[in-house]
Design a protein that fits this description.
Length: 637
């Protein structure tokens, strides 16, 4: 891939007489199942892929935009002004760039200067692998980087869809842009297009791989019957709404549709709507089949999807039918279907990896014999890897951004942030550690969250965001881990809900959270030396504390009686919850306390940062009575 950027950088210098400053990448996508459901309020099940669109670019000082594609050399350099953006009637690829610019400007983002951009894609054009959406998201991240736009990933996704709908003239749904914007390694996205709620589902196919089969028949969505199909579904929906209280076809199950299909009064419209409803239900079932590892059922649902697209939606054509139906008959193929809008483009097949060559040969021969020209095949061993996610490539595409890796690890915990929050979360991390020297080393994405955090702390020192001393390092480490810990009210709510199940469930949850957030210093505790020795009273467990020097109990007691003007009053009081820390005073950003009532008194429960489970829990008094529990209180406990 580095060769791609070197090639584009050379072309950039040849065309524009300056060096490109930034590199970019945006993947394509396949849709496993859920075709033509996105604009019908249903579910889709796409995945970003390793093929995509590469770009190098720089900002200009004037208002001109200069574009060049190594895929469309015959179009030469496309030039336009930000002050005069008009759709090119010849339909060149620059229209997608214009559409995204206008969509972002409509949302209030300022594009003050022009730019120069050279791109190349390895997605076949008009193949059904979303080359246009890949380009749209690429343009989004180009503008985000060059002009420091404070966008979210969802805003870029919606800008891509708006460019497609409002400027290009294709009434597509949001699936393609969403899959590209939110794709994750080895996962498919189960997306509810009605609410934009989604679930990342492991795309685990066992001994099988995805084979992309390209008809090599070009199709343009605006020239196809795509918009007609959408209009037909909208008409069918209106007829159903005369009786049913629904906003989209995606709200119906198969039984309800069948019982009310006579409201439509048009056999063609019935078929269109039936596909939308049945395909949505197939997608829901397919998601669960993949989770359950039932690949035979998943494959059959893929086959059923193609049949519906052929017979009810009528968007396949002889080319796609030849590929899919021939593949379905081959040994080692679990399922095959067209993917994308149809009317040409590509089909996919789920194939035993040991049978790929035989399948390609059989399908290729049948296609050549019937169609008269060759199909082409691309093997996807995985749906995506981290090197192929949509991104701004600051130095080397083979390296990941440390802040982004840390954000991913926070999101994976599913406690505070979701995938939609990644851009926001990453920017929050940038504000703490700086944006320079963010590139990770190979393998950093496999490190645990604590190792990545420590690397970010070192980055902050290099960027002079913090002093190179123990206090500043601990404070920043605590602040970073705080991203993974819910608010106190949430922690308490979960604790008491689990307490109703059993006290063990509740305390196990709180202890696990305290360790996971690195509030309990498990790695430091591991340095301690522990052993047992036999005594007349049983085994005595002895720990030599090497993790943290203990304070004199007399000094602790004296501190409790002493009036203090500092804040917090001591290292044990409730005021420490979420406290940032200061020189000589530990950070408690990720600290949480459970509120409880003991004998009519309000107390707080926590673990010690340097403790073992059930050995060093602490009860805190809100009136600042450290290390003191009344006898009657202790008895009731």
């Amino acid at each position: 891939m580095t060769d791609v950027y070197e090639k584009l950088a050379t072309i950039f210098t040849e065309k524009f007489a300056v060096k490109a400053e930034h590199r970019f990448f945006s993947p394509g996508r396949i849709n496993l199942i859920g075709e033509h459901t996105d604009y019908n309020g249903g579910h889709v099940f796409p995945a970003a892929i390793t093929l995509g669109t590469y770009g190098v670019g720089s900002k200009r000082n004037d208002r001109k935009v200069l574009l060049y594609s190594d895929n469309f050399t015959d179009q030469g350099v496309i030039e336009f002004s930000l002050d005069d953006i008009k759709k090119d009637p010849d339909g060149n690829w620059g229209n997608y760039v214009k559409g995204v610019i206008l969509a972002l400007k409509k949302e209030g983002f300022d594009i003050p200067n022009g730019f120069e951009l050279v791109i190349e894609g390895n997605l076949p054009n008009a193949s059904g692998l979303s080359s246009s959406s890949s380009l749209e998201l690429l343009i989004g991240v180009v503008l985000e980087r060059l002009f420091d736009l404070k966008t979210t990933r969802l805003q870029l996704v919606k800008a891509g869809q708006a460019a497609e709908n409002d400027f290009i003239g294709v009434n597509s749904g949001i699936m393609d842009q969403f899959a590209i914007g939110f794709g994750k390694k080895d996962h498919a996205i189960f997306l509810d297009t009605n609410t934009l709620e989604y679930e990342l589902v492991p795309a685990e196919f066992g001994n099988n791989v995805i084979l992309i089969m390209n008809t090599n028949k070009r199709r343009e969505l605006t020239d196809s019957k795509y918009n007609q199909r959408r209009s037909e579904c909208e008409t069918a929906l209106k007829k159903l709404q005369t009786k049913l209280d629904i906003k989209s076809l995606g709200e119906l199950d198969n039984k309800t549709f069948d019982e009310n299909a006579d409201l439509i009064h048009d056999p063609t419209l019935v078929k269109r709507a039936r596909h939308a409803v049945y395909e949505n239900q197939r997608t829901i079932i397919a998601k669960q089949a993949l989770i359950d590892g039932d690949l035979e059922k998943f494959g059959q649902l893929i086959n059923d999807s193609h049949k519906s697209l052929k017979e009810d939606y009528e968007v396949t054509g002889v080319e796609l039918d030849t590929l899919a139906q021939t593949a379905q008959k081959q040994a080692g193929v679990l399922g095959a279907r067209m993917t994308g809008a149809g009317f040409g483009g590509c089909a996919i097949a789920l194939v035993d990896k040991d049978k790929v060559d035989q399948v390609k040969a059989a399908v290729g021969k049948a296609y050549l014999d019937k169609i008269g020209y060759e199909a082409s095949f691309t093997l996807l061993k995985s749906v995506m890897d981290p090197k192929h996610s949509i991104k701004i490539v600051l130095e080397d595409l083979m390296q990941e951004d440390l802040a982004g890796i840390f954000a991913d690890k926070v999101i994976e915990k599913k406690r505070t942030y979701q995938a939609l929050d990644k851009i926001y979360l990453t920017n929050q991390i940038y504000s703490l550690v700086g944006e320079k020297n963010q590139q990770a080393k190979d393998g950093d994405e496999k490190q645990d969250i604590y190792a990545v955090r420590d690397e970010l702390v070192r980055t902050a020192v290099k960027n002079q965001k913090i002093n190179d001393d123990l206090t500043d390092r601990e404070i920043l480490a605590s602040r970073l881990m705080n991203f993974s810990v819910p608010r106190p009210s949430v922690v308490n709510d979960i604790f008491w809900k689990k307490y109703k199940e059993s006290p063990n469930e509740a305390t196990n949850y709180f202890f696990s959270l305290s360790k996971d957030s690195d509030y309990i210093k498990t790695r430091a505790i591991a340095k301690n030396i522990a052993f047992k020795t036999a005594t007349d009273y049983g085994d005595l467990e002895i720990t030599i504390n090497l993790s943290k020097p203990e304070k004199d109990p007399k000094a602790i007691a004296a501190a409790g009686k002493k009036t203090s003007t500092s804040y917090p009053l001591c290292q044990l009081c409730m005021e420490n919850e979420g406290y940032l820390g200061r020189l000589g005073y530990p950070a408690r950003s990720e600290h949480r306390i459970i509120r409880l009532e003991l004998n009519g008194e309000q107390w707080g429960f926590q673990y010690s940062p340097y403790a073992y489970f059930n050995e060093h829990a602490i009860f805190l008094s809100p009136v600042h009575r450290p290390m003191h529990i009344d006898r009657i209180t202790f008895k009731i406990c």
